[in-house]
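Minimal example, chain plus heme C.
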Amino acid sequence: MKRLMVLIGSIVIMFSCQQADKPAQAVEDMEPDENAERIQTDSISGLVIDENFELIRGQCTACHSAMLITQNNASRDGWEQMIRWMQKDQGLWDLGENEPKILDYLSKHYGLKKKGRRAPLTDVEWYELKDEL
Ligand code: HEC
């Protein structure tokens, strides 16, 4: 009887080990969602991580927190103006050949939002407000 219990016990254990492999398999089988945004941010600076992340972290967080960047949105021109202003008044150095890369990064990740929460109304038929109630 004892042996039978051990045998049953080990069959149960073997079976549950096989089951344990399944979830990992299921994750591999999942289709990537094409629409999902795969944006990773650095846990310390909050900056979006992409190929030029380290350049921006190196050049743009020496004087102030990266939060000044992450809370801003501007067009490429807007970012260029901010850089010119910091160069003129705040002691920011010449960014040289890094400048276009920095502007690409900033306008890509902290650019102007293309869409608001909804498109503005068009073709609205307005009516006159009457004075008398
Ligand atoms: C030499 C120092 C220095 C460096 C390097 C520097 N900044 Fe600044 N930046 C400043 C100062 C000073 C301010 C004003 C801070 C304040 O108002 O508290 C500022 C302000 C800003 C602001 C806020 C502007 C506004 O109008 O509110 C942004 C955005 C910014 N910096 C982005 C950047 C970016 C992007 C880089 C990298 C290219 C960078 N900074 C590198 C000194 C620097």
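The pocket of heme C is lined by residues 59-60, 62-64, 68-69, 72, 82-83, 86, 90-92, 102, 106 (CB under 6 Å). The chain has a mean pLDDT of 83.
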